[in-house]
Protein: N-acetylglucosaminyltransferas-like protein
Amino acid sequence: MKSFSPKDFIVDVGSGASSITDAGIEVATKTKKPRLVARVSQFIHEWTPFLLVSSYFPFSVCLYLVCSQTFVEVFFFIYLATNFYVAAGTVLEAFFSITPIKESRQVVEKASAKNWVFPTPDSDLGMLDLILVAYLPNEKDIILDRVDYMVNKIIYPRDKIRINVLYNTPKAIPDVENDLRVLAKEHHHLRVVKVPNSTSKADNLNHFLTHCVEPDSDVIAIFDADHYPHPNASRWAMERFAQSSDIDIVQGRCIIFNSQDNFLTKMIAVEFDKIYAVSHPGRAVMWNFGLFCGSNGYWRSDLLKKLKMDGSMLTEDIDSALRALSHGANAVHDMNVTSYELAPTTWPTFWKQRLRWAQGWTQASARHLQMTWNAPPEQRPRTARIRFGIFSLLFIREWSYYLVTQCTCLTFSFVISRWPKSGLGALHFLFFQYPIAWWLFFLSVLCLVATLWITNRVKSEFVTRWDIVVFSVFYAFYIIVNATIGLYGHARQVARYSSWNPTVRS
Structure:
């Protein structure tokens, strides 16, 4: 180490800038300024989406207070007409879902009658790589339980399945990591991979697809770390691949199993039943395309190795699903391929998760909306039916956030300027300001009732009929919350916010 003598600190006062005191102040000032600027810039960047959304609502309410009556009537008609279109599309998806639901039940009945002897002999089944993706700090309390479940409970020939645990962690967690390695030694079909330099689910999956996948892999299944796949789920999925070479992706049904924790988890559980058991299979029939939804999805290995995951996307799974669709891949939804997962138990966790989903969907929609007009692969033409379904999914769904929130703002303007003074006035206060609203409102309500009636017929064992009733009562508020989150996602995208917030599991 270099030694210093007193002469090293002698200051030549006449040299000005060479003064050790002046130089120190200069360096400190230069250091503080960039740090201060960076902090202010970061603060503005993080809070810009909030300021945009929070100013959006009062500005819109004030706009309706000063605009003409004709303008209000035109907008109100556009909103109600679009709302009816969305509601009608939802109920049509629900009715179309009845067929795949019946078919899935018939398949189960046949297998049960044959003492669970499946159509495809074990020797003819493909090699399955099942992937469990984990961000260890958030999932360290559940990962060992899920891995133990998968290696012991999944019913599939042991010589034809590999269970791969891909995890990343910014800091070592020795006890959990050591236990994972011990499990890998105990089970020959379990492989544990700590992915270096990974910061996302996409990094973990791409590492596996680039460095770890074996040549004999036929199908790759992707699961988040909180999932419990049904013991027979993998077999059902592989039966679909064995029965048809045209199937590229099998997406299963995800069920919330902690539905009774609190009010929020009950609402999410009903929503998941409505989405996975009704909307997804119904849309696949109605528009003739299905989608991979992020977890409990089975891919032909060659296709997934070709597409990989785009780490620049906040919802890389939705992006990969849409890229697969753009390449002409055929994705099907199977109600027998079930898996059980956790819902967020607190509003902050729910908010962060849905904000990431909303911004991710915005990114994916902007990137892939061109599928409504561009040329598809020659081997699988894209029909007008598929194109309009894509347009409805990627454009109308995003646009509906503004219609819902604008109607909410319009209602507040009515509260301020047209508060009812009689019983009849109260009757006309909401939705019935204009004659056309009677028809569009009641038709939309009937569509909602029909959709939830079908949802009740296929609800999971963790959802009660009373939960569906409560969901129906709060559905309007739930739609407004989700629309606001959608707007927030748009604002984040405009502000180029790119922080990835993984969901906390417990």
In short: The first strand starts at residue 128 and ends at 135.
